[in-house]
Amino acid sequence: MQRKTRLKLSLKKRIRIRLKKLRAKVKPLILAYKSRIIMKKLFKLQEFRKAKSVLFYVSFNNEVDTYKMIRKALKLKKTVYVPIVDFKNKRLTISRIRTFPETLIRTSCGILEPKPGSEEFYHGKKIDIIIVPGVGFDCKGNRLGYGGGFYDRLLKDMASLKIGVAYEFQILKQLPTEKYDQKLNLIITEKREYSIVT
User: Fold this and answer.
1) How many domains does the chain divide into?
2) Are the C-beta atoms of 133 and 59 separated by less than 8 Å?
């Protein structure tokens, strides 16, 4: 591995640790309040209102809450998908859900996923909108994930509007990037929207 790449990975790791610690310090009630604001902004978007299909991550560990988003999207009769982590192949597979959270089960990682046997796998390349989690983001649409590259592999293959949802304190001026990192089209926080021109 080249020295430049090693330095970027080391910097990413330090930023990741700092932002996760920062997020862990915020009171749950404050995070819930910020999540409600982000949800309202997302659902007001013209692109979201028009979207027929949406892939949501299922939030955990103080991420922007998507539970209410998923329930409301289902109520609006949108086709809703969630990811399933395939650790063996280091990829995310996609499953449709029709109710939430009744047909999901908590995995060993603490994330809700469709119960084995209840999956409705999706193998296409076109979901209207993908709601993307992250530890950190920057104003140029770059995203810092948890280090496994799962979402980068997924986003690379999908012809979708890619929207990150984040707390404002997760937004940095600039993140270190590598060639395989996938940019987002839009990032929504409780304070503002960062629209990325590509």
Assistant:
1) 1
2) yes
Kindly report whether the global pTM for this prediction surpasses the value 0.90. yes
Residue among 129, 75, 85 nearest 107 (CA)? 85
pLDDT digits (tens, 9 = 90+) for 81-104: 999 999 999 899 999 999 999 999
pLDDT in tens, 19-72: 999 999 999 999 999 999 999 999 999 999 999 999 999 999 999 999 999 999
Number of H helices, E strands in the chain: 5, 13
DSSP state of 146: S
Q: Which two tokens stand for residue 166?
A: 């984040």
Closest CA to 173 of 126, 136, 123: 136
Terminal Cα distance for the chain, rounded: 30
- In this structure, what CATH number is given to the domain that contains residue 53? 3.40.50.10420
Q: Do residues 140 and 165 touch, judged by C-beta distance below 8 A? A: no
Full domain range(s) for residue 169: 3-195
- Write out the two tokens for 160: 């979708």
Spatial neighbors of 154 by CB under 8 A, at least 6 apart, are: 83, 91, 92, 94, 130
* CA atoms of 25 and 32, how far apart (whole Å): 14
